[in-house]
Queue: 4 jobs
Job 1
Amino acid sequence: MTYKNINGLKAFIAGREFGLAKELFGLTDGKHRTEHHQPCILSDCDSDNDAFRFNSTEGTFHCRRCGFGGDIIDLAREVLGLSFTEAFDRIADIAGYTDTDTATNQERPSQERKPVSPPAPFLPTFRLDADSPVFKAVQKHRPDILFDDYQRAGAKLFRDGIAIPMFDNAGIESGWVRYFIDGGKPKLLGKSGIVGVDAIYNLRIAKQARIVFKTAGVSDYLVLSGTIERLGLEADYYAFTNGAGEGELPGKFEALMRPALTGKSVGVIQDNDEAGESGALRWAESIAEYAADVCIVKLPPVVFDCEVKDLRDFFATDGATFTDLLF
């Protein structure tokens, strides 16, 4: 398969995005030198005369009315109804870009394996109870994650928070992600792994799914997997994540991911920050070696005046739906 070198395309068309957008979508020159204003070109947006703004310096757009924004690929996907791959190819063809990264034909440098730390000591836990004061305190800190989402992942209560188990490539419990009730961020105990009950088995049966999503972290995973189940879409879509998020090297999980994701369409969901962009690219490049189609799913930076930093923010807005993630 051919991995779409999105960074290469962006570098190739840098400074020409507005000209390409004019050719593709009929955008008009605005009265401002760098920011071009006009009514929104999205069919379902009833905007005023200057709500849609395309910044020719940055190569990005945003509509103040409907909140949609992104780059020229995002615009092609939305306006022309294309998948990520189709939008990439359409823009590359018009721009004359031909440099794609054929992942299967490249020798990737082997990564030096670090010594594996021993599993964390046994963490005493007890049955998850939605009425527990501990759970209520944790949910106050993570109100977007429902009780059923924690329960689905096999979470247990411990003295001052909630623990979610992780599994290594042999399917053995290897550590815990812990949510404290003191307002701190989730803290990882033990070595990292794939998150969820029977995670190894579940990821392998993901062969049944049409699209498999890799989220940027545990909180996003809980929200997305819960959304998929509540919509009754488990037969077509599957979500998974690793314990330490996008900063972790994907090579350590290849033995698990390769048999599960070979020939699949995979969407790597990117957080809206620099670390999220580089991490999503790293995971997409690795998975592209055996998946049929890999797309980096970029979240809109703003939805209805609400800033979107990650998938939890995205689903917390009234205007976001699961179908917005499809490619």
Job 2
Amino acid sequence: MGDWDNILSGVYKSIIEYQNERWGDNDQTVSFPKFKTLQDAIDNTKLVGITISIHPEEFGQFRGQKGRFAVLMFDAEWVADDARTLSVALINEKVAEITSQEIV
């Protein structure tokens, strides 16, 4: 928690990259402008949950990786799925994956 601001900064930078890579894929994504700043990402996402585990091997796609595992769940209207969910997986406080699928 002592490095929370730096962790979130890295998360939001990754969200900007994710949104810009997928922008234009469908009508939902083009209804929002491409994110340019951290504030754009902050304004268009809402942190709604955090899952933390000290055993990342419990999560299939991260099997074999060691360290601290957490998933930040965001509500994001610009995500092109019905749930409008954005999952950001962190291993050792670094972004490992961003997906519109729920990682649990």
Job 3
Amino acid sequence: MKKIFLVLLFSVLFSANAYAKEDVLRCALKNKLNEPDIRTEVEIDLDKKILWADGSKYKINLIGERAIKAENENGNIRISIDRFDGFMTLEALSSKFGGYCKKYKKIF
């Protein structure tokens, strides 16, 4: 009986990692000014409340039904992603980019 209990306990403890996943998005962002367009890759880990955009780390402040909002440590760059249509806005000090994201999966 103890062995069965231990097997069940360990399977429950280690199964949480199997369900934790990161969503990866590929986004094409545009700016109304003369700055070049940006193509960025975004990784979202909702369990850890961390968002990575092209290697930069952002803390997720809001996980809502409609949107996910994050900002960097200094608070001078903000990211907002619509969870339904994938529209992302990236606001820096003097620029604002916006565009659509799609889920990205490995091909092989």
Job 4
Amino acid sequence: MRSIGVLLATLTSAVVLTAAAADPIDVPSAQVLKVAIKSSTPRDTWARQDAAAFVLGNVVRTQAGERAKTKAFTSAESARLADLDGFQSAAEKSYLASLPPACNGRDCEERYAYYRCVSAYELSPAFYRAIFDRFFTPDAQKVLAPLLANAGTVWQGAIAMAPNSHPFESFPAPSRECAGGVSPAPATTAGGTTGTAPVPAQSAQATPSDDSIRRARAAGVDVTVLGLTLGEPVRLPACPAQSIFNILGPGIETTCIWNEDPLGVAEDITKLFGVTPNADGTRNASMYDLVIAMPPAKCPDWVAQCQFRVQLSGGRLSAVFILTTGLEVQNDVGAALTQKYKKPTQTSYKRWVNDKTGDTVMSLNMSWNLPGLNVTLEGYPGGTREAFGSVTIEADAITRQRAQEEKAKQDQKQKL
């Protein structure tokens, strides 16, 4: 497995701040983008404009360096960011206004197709490369490249590509949604061992989590977790059939949906953290849906058993729960999360005492209350599982949902 340092690569935002350039390079305005970016369909045009403004906003923030952490932008930077952010909002509003009457005031597949298209562009190194070559001269690229090469995994991939390897004028749509079509549901093969794994049936309707994640994205919060993106469907293959004797062996070569859960990660989570079904057999809305397995070559050491659990809302990722390898890695995980989400909202330590031996351990607890997103690290939850800690990353709507469900449980217990 990889060392804890891999966390910085697997959890890194597409907008990691670096040292500011001495002479900031001018970033194109929204008006330049509006004139330059056209495509074959209105949806793709607006999505490209939306994503391009996002990418260029990255460049502004990256050049600002440490000042961006406290939003201490110059007047020119603030004006350009407001210009680009406003352009993103205008592109989204223009698309929503074009939807058929059946989508007016409610959610429909055409609405979500737009967001999936924008996300495809925003996570595409080739698109970043196309933007870089189209809007920045070779001299400007020489100044920006060292900064952007340290500005997250998407930029790293873009800078590593050859100049002009992805012509802006002929850049293809990265998904069928961008071209105006709707991607069909992926098929599964017999036995569910290849193809895309089946996920719990949920309607593609708006949920409170959608608003949470939109607010997080608008505020520049990183919504990626271990290769997945909050607010997007989980489209992963089903894991090959495994047993307790060959789990995470050669049969798992890519991240996949683990249906059988032979090591009982799902059971561990439900027992330790109270996400069990109700006594009457009903399922709380905030329960985790899927177990995701990672191959050893891509699995950070801090992820217990190379598995984690995710929750879906309306068929889209809304929360991630990760068991960590515990006390020995809690400080490193906390540091990596701080790099990803910046200064925590709260940091505390809890002292645990073994009743029999008198041994004590100190558990690190950290939390980040971000726009639309809540993140928590618990180094050790107590009990007998000293090896485990946990990281929870979830839409704030899910946090509220869990609190409401817990209150309802407690109220029921207090009834005479």
